[in-house]
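Fold this: DUF4244 domain-containing protein
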Amino acid sequence: MMRKTFWRRHETGMSTAEYAVGTLGTATIAAVLIGPGNPIMQWVQAVFEKVLTSILTMDPDSFVSLPEAFVRAVESLWPW
């Protein structure tokens, strides 16, 4: 007589339904944080505008790297 062996699977990850719920939750949190009228998003947008403006109007002799441009923009727009 043949004996069947059953392997037990250890659950180590998320199933498809859990991925769907996790993705929905992440999207909801992102929508709340990035939604219109959020002061954090307005500040982030101001930083990016300042970086782009400073890079596009930069004198070629005074080259600044992109990380340095971000540091300068954040320092000038930091509300505290």
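The CA atoms of residues 24 and 69 lie 35 Å apart. The two ends are 78 Å apart (CA to CA).
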